[in-house]
Amino acid sequence: MAESTAEQAARATAGSKGEKTRKKPPANTLSGKLARLGIHGDAELILHLPLRYEDETRIVPLAEIAAAPAGEALQVEVEVMGSEISFRPRRQLVARVRDAVTGSGLLVVRLLNFYPTQQKQFEPGNRLRLFGEVREGYFGLEMVHPRVQGVTAGTPLPVALTPVYPTTAGLGQATLRRLITRALQGVALHDTLPAEILQQHELMAFDAAIRMLHQPPAALAAEALAARNRAAWQRIRFDELLAQQLSLRRAWATRRSHGAPALPALHSASALTQALRAQLPFQLTTAQQRVWREIAADLAQPWPMQRLLQGDVGSGKTIVAALAMLQAVDNGWQGAMMAPTEILAEQHYSKLSQWLAPLGIEVAWLSGSLKKSQKAAMQEAVRSGRAAVVVGTHALIEEAVDFARLGVAVIDEQHRFGVRQRLALRQKGQTAHSHTPHQLMMSATPIPRSLAMSYYADLDVSVIDELPPGRTPVATRLVADGRRREVVRRVHAACSQGRQAYWVCPLIEESETLQLQTAIETHARLTEELPELQVGLVHGRLKPQEKSAVMTAFAANEIQVLVATTVIEVGVDVPNASLMIIEHAERFGLAQLHQLRGRVGRGVAESTCVLLYSAPLGQIARERLKVIYEHTDGFEIARQDLALRGPGEFIGARQSGLPLLRYADLDDAELVDRARQVAEQLMRDHPAAERAHLQRWLAGREELLKA
């Protein structure tokens, strides 16, 4: 059988058999347009499923169109009575048509942009089928830019609903439908799942599901089918989740096959982990102790730990990371911690130095702001092994940085780093013995259970679900920006009592589009309005030394009000700050709002977060502010955030390297659970079915999962 266009394009661009990445075809060719949709052959064409359906299987008489629901597209068969080009209010083709069967009724058709061929279609006497929405116009009922098909009295109607596919510029629906129909005729749609699994989970056969979704019979309602609650969609969603689970579990198994330094926990009095815990001015919470035991057990194994540590803002993840790095040092290896911003990295460096210096451990600091001589000295300390613990920003993965024996790599706020950056730190630790360092990734953005089961199936996940004692609850207030003066008076009152305040602005330069208050303008205004107080300013365009100086002055209460952009979102810990003002709060995401609110409530004083918003609020902004106002639990906020944004945006899936799910709904935790169980069953009992399923759903894309 002849190859499809997509297959020809794929064969021409795939390269040699062993090549893992396809060469990109020219963007303006058909194969290039298909490639933009991730389609390189017939196998991908059949999995390119419709967004919705249109019912062209029936004709609605003109006499009945007035009763059709508003916004509903329908099809009529008409005869053209006449047409003309009108120039009011703009150039357009206006045609009058009547019912082709009864000769009665009247409908106006308007084309605002048209070609001579379209003008010819609307010559008097022509018989046409029009598909579109009917609305009330100036001259009565009208259709604007309907889909037009020339017909004769005997032209048959389609027998199936018409699918509408996701597409890209220059690739029409007719072309996609033709290619997909050809692919369905030329590809054998064998089921990848054993009959026992299909029966056990009451799954529709793959062949039947695919054909129903591409060519649904007219008897099915387009709305019900598009709602994805039918058996055919359920099979596709299950298959996609199963492919993801299989791929991630494979990645998990592959990592366990690599060698890593075994770093057993030492329980002698001289052990550094024991010494650190003995000198801490606080006790670990029950949750911290549980998580620490999980990590310590992982580090003792001869394969690399790959663990995600989740914990709400202020739950105490840093001390757990310190203990992990110390377990490496106890065994003669090094520990490294990488953070996404200089402010956060410097906070970690300060805290770790405070804890570890009394134990005789040298902590190195690497950032882009260091002078050349300072950086060289630090790099030498890391290279020689003199510095047992290293803290830094992206500077840790620069080419000039070499570790003597990196045993544990900690990545804080891991979702802010790309795939290559996370891989680069791990590769820094690969020694001549081909050891892969253990990796601990931390996140203060909690991940809902269904999402963790799906997107993190290749990781072991630990959760600190308890806040340390003494953390005061933060009261949240919603205030319209018209009451800004009241908020300024509140800041003055709090600082007069010896407290401090943050004032956060989203932008540092004027934007006419967003009309947001800038940090620079706010700093000038607050300096004028609060002459008795010292008002500081920190934003991303300050030099690192300037940022550090401002933060040090704020920590020492030499600055009472700190105006800032979101550079203070994570890592800033000033217990005396009890008031957080977030200007234009409606512009922030839920995770950012929760993180910013977590900068206060770290001391003994009652703390408040004021969310200043500008009316009128859009629907999504209103829902976000309602969530942050009603909830303080980060996991519940994350669950609501997932519902508002969807999994791709929530998890930053493209940035993280994980393939986005196209059809599966991660709110369905029960389906994710079932896919997980079947993945384990296939890997254990049906390896051939496992390979076939992955080939169908993830062929050529598994390299995305190497992070």
Describe the structure.
By secondary structure, the protein is α/β, with parallel strands linked by helices. It folds into four domains: 5-52 and 164-227, no CATH class; 58-157, Beta Barrel (OB fold (Dihydrolipoamide Acetyltransferase, E2P)), CATH 2.40.50; 272-464, P-loop containing nucleotide triphosphate hydrolases (Rossmann fold, 3-Layer(aba) Sandwich); 474-631, P-loop containing nucleotide triphosphate hydrolases (Rossmann fold), CATH 3.40.50. Helix content is 39%, strand content 17%. The protein contains 26 helices and 21 strands. The strands form four sheets. A seven-stranded parallel β-sheet has the order 11-12-10-13-14-9-15, sandwiched between helices. A six-stranded parallel β-sheet has the order 16-21-20-17-19-18, with helices on both faces. Helix 20 (590-597) links the parallel strand 20 (577-582) and strand 21 (607-613). The chain is globular. It starts with a helix and ends in a 9-residue tail after the last helix.
Spatial gap, N to C terminus: 40 Å
- The oligomerization state is single chain
Integer average pLDDT: 85
Largest sheet: 7 strands, parallel
> What is the CATH architecture annotation of the largest domain?
3-Layer(aba) Sandwich
Any idea of the CATH topology of the largest domain?
Rossmann fold
Share in helix: 25-40%
Give the beta-strand count. Answer: 21
* Strand composition percent: 15-25%
Structural class: alpha/beta
CA-based shape: globular
Number of helices: 26
Instruction: Report low-confidence residues grouped into runs of 5 or more.
Output: 1-21, 512-516, 653-658, 703-707
